[in-house]
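Hey,

Quick one before I head out. I ran the complex with beta-D-galactopyranose overnight. Inputs first:
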Amino acid sequence: MIELDHPRSPDALPATEPGRPAAQRWRTDRVLLGCDYNPEQWPREVWEQDVRLMREVGVGLVAVNVFGWAEVQPGPQRYDFARLDEVVELLHDHGIGINLGTGTASPPPWLTTAYPQILPVAEDGTTRWPGGRQAWCPSSPVYREHSLALVEEVARRYGHHPALRLWHVNNELGCHNGLCYCDVSAEAFRGWLRERYVGIEDLNAAWGTSFWSQRYGAFEEILPPRLTLSTPNPSQVLDYRRFSSEELLAQHLAESEVIRRHSGIPITTNMMVTAHQRDVDYWSWTPHVDVVANDHYLDHRLEDPATELAFCADLTRGLAHGRPWLLMEHSTSAVNWQPVNVAKAPGELLRTSVSHLARGADALCFFQWRASVQGAEKYHSAMVPHAGTDSSTWREVQELGSLLADLPELAGTTVRSQVALVFSYENQWAADAPNRPSELVTHLDQVLGAYAALRAVGVGVDVVEPGADLSGYQLVVVPQLYLVRDADAAALDRFVSGGGHALVTYWSGIVDEDDRVRAGGYPGAFRDLLGVVVDEVHPLAAGQSLALTEGGTAARWTERVRLTGAEAYLHLEEGPLRGGAAVTVHERGAGRAWYAAADLDEATLRSLLGEVVRGAGVEPEPGAGPTVEVVRRHPADGRSGPTFLFAINHGDESAHVPARGTEVRSGDHVDGQLEVPAGAVRIVRIPAQEES
Ligand code: GAL
């Protein structure tokens, strides 16, 4: 083993600005290109080539030891850091910063053999065995103890290493093992419930256990929502999801606490802000990271993966409270875990990376550096593909590297929006629960539908949580906020009464935080705000659609709307509710509240959003549209400097975007009109005096 000789004095560490709120401690003076690096899969001579190529392309941040546990701790009380030491030194010698994994993501076989109680158990009681990854129960004290012992060793050894830039806690906490139903989890859940409720009767009331003979006499009788014959109690499931998300956060906090004893370097964990991650409520996590980091992969199971990417990037910035964030993982091309792993088209690597960049990312990292030749991920793309550097992927990576080198002033700049879109994980959990009025309607469809319509009308969006401070916005879009707390509903009402505009979409305001229906007519908490009462919802059968009087159609969902202050804006032309409202508008105090009571076709939703946006006085970004993204990054508050305009053309035809400044790649002066050829990305640097 190599002994490392590193400065131990905290004075030698990069400043972490301890007095500042969390999620603000990390800063970079240039946008970083980075990657996950798994050198243990390669012989030593490949490493030399790797670091040379990393330098060549401008890689500045490398994640190592993410899945290192079995190697650095080959047995109980035995640690062997020889290879990791070498890798760390090699990267350091080449001036490459390290994003150091604590290594706890996947317990090694010796540990799960000795302590099989660590293994997670699925809803149906079957064990999830080792042999893949992340086979640990989030509530397991045995896993916790052993993982923290590893963190202690790693943090002590590398905590002051001069190459260390960031701590990478665990990996995608909750990926695969977000919900565990074992006996240990059951006991932990009961403990959590005892804290949450005053006593068992309080829990019985919250969960509505008078239904179906579910009344509990004592906490000891409660189980996690294991596989049942019929639909389980939805309030119990909701609490179990809250509990499970907190158990994962507890692992992050425990690892962070150990690190902080040995190191002043900023700490993060890579989140999964993507359409398919539903097990973690990240709003409660972000106060506990020094910088928000996200992993995002294009999801080709969705109709419009590029829109989902943009939404997730805006949500990540929302989680970071507007501050720059890191894209810790994305792919150069195909992934390996979708039914069909679609490769990126020529130019798509740049378009997708820049879409994150435009929305506030201060680092663009890839999983992974070199494509594996063995293991379950051997057909996952990488910066260095199986074909090597004589490949289109490598050339696009080079292009991205040189683009980032041309943007030295971009780091730390931020995005400003006049429109907020409300998104809540616990709402998604509740809204998508079984036995709802229509399974044709999913929460994500509503969110992405509203987001896509805003994007099509050229409006940038901040994604916020319910109850967020709305004072800086002119318009708030609330797609299907089914579960809403009283205080959050009141905050939206105050925003509108005070002069703001809002658009709420159907099946909102329905239940309180326990998933208890707000009786008296839908949309419950928003009846007064919207000036309507709905007696009954009328979902439509698959394939059915109804014409609207003003043109367009409604499918999937309609409601029997009674106007109690609002006016009908669009009407149903046919069906049992013909003549009734599909969209309403209510002048409320000094503001205006719109309600989409039906599921509108894409064009109608888009034109409605156009009207809503105009009425709110929001200015769309000139040149932006359904296939052309135009996003600006401005100097952070209180700072001066240029603004950057990003134009990304996802379409097949050349586009024109009004702009003045210098196109950063070509150095061309842009004097009014920026041409963005089909599939191209253009970035204009706008000097401070031009922008103001
Ligand atoms: C992430 C994970 C990486 C890699 C990647 C593949 O979920 O953090 O380790 O597996 O997916 O897309």
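The CA atoms of residues 483 and 511 lie 5 Å apart.

Talk tomorrow,
K.
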